[in-house]
Task: structure prediction
Amino acid sequence: MESLGDKIYRARKVKGLSQEELADSVGVSRQTVSQWENNKFQPGSENIDALCRVLGLKREEFADWTDACDGVGECPTDGQSRTREKVLTVTAALASAAAAIMAVITVLLGFITFTSNTGDMVDNSYSIPQSTFYVVFTITLITMVACAVLIVLRVRVKQVKS
Result:
């Protein structure tokens, strides 16, 4: 599949424009056009519109790119996307581990809080208030929701990439 930079380069050559001429027409620097063509950066939504106007292209030709970008400012390159994907992967893994640990602590705390010994045994000597259990339970739920959100974000980044 042709990269966005290749599309811009090819269209610029077909129109017989230099990078400087294209940059002036779009309202950016020549270096920016060079970075677009070398796939170091990708143009934002406004610049895509200007490129379409100057190069005589249709916005649909950039459909692969526009679906993967929020259209605000310059979009991340492949290297930046991979870094974001790695950060999300590590964060999701850490959040999953934290959620698992919190779940175990919550179960143990609930067992200690809501059980008492009967018969010849002494009453529960831990005397943990129920409010403490509810706070830990709430934190555990928040951790699990955050974990789920991170996993969904990770999946979305992976889908956008492929």
Notes: The longest helix spans residues 78-114. The chain has seven helices and no strands. Residues 66-74 have pLDDT under 50 and may be disordered.
